[in-house]
Amino acid sequence: IKTAETAFNTKNYTAAFAQLTVLEKEFPSNVEIQLYKAICLLELDKFSQADTIFETIRKGNSAFVTKATWYKALSYLKQDKTAASIKVLQTIPEDAEDYTSAQDLLDKLD
Asked: What are the tens digits of pLDDT across the range 28-77?
């Protein structure tokens, strides 16, 4: 876990993804590992794979649903899909950790 965390925090997303993939085999139902794998994919511009994972998390009921929603919106932005990003940002609930950031981003996109 420490190796994956260090790689991720130093923005070595290729190494982090590899380490997280190993961890995921040990802990296949760990949504946090899946989320960080998707973030790595996003940072590596592997949007299709990242978006699939974000969407799977969004459809679940873990504590990471809103975080996955936030990153899905950012993924759309990186792909120049502004309208899709706005639509996703608007689904982030007021009590979510990322709500203020989502609102700020929505203001900039309008």
From this structure: 999 999 999 999 999 999 999 999 999 999 999 999 999 999 999 999 99
Torsions phi, psi of 11, nearest 5? 65, 25
d(CA 54, CA 28): 16
Residue 110 banded pLDDT, cuts 50, 70, 90? confident
The whole-number pLDDT of residue 99 equals: 97
Q: How far apart (Å, rounded) are the C-alpha atoms in residues 86 and 74?
A: 10
**The token pair that represents 91 in the structure block:** 């689904």
Question: The tokens 């982090």 sit on which residue?
Answer: 16
Burial group, residue 106, by CB count within 10 angstroms (0-12, 13-18, 19+): middle
At how many degrees (to 10) do helices 13-26 and 2-9 cross? Answer: 150
Helix 65-78 and helix 47-58, axial crossing angle in degrees, nearest 10? 150
Query: Nearest-5° angle of CA 26, CA 4, CA 68?
Result: 80
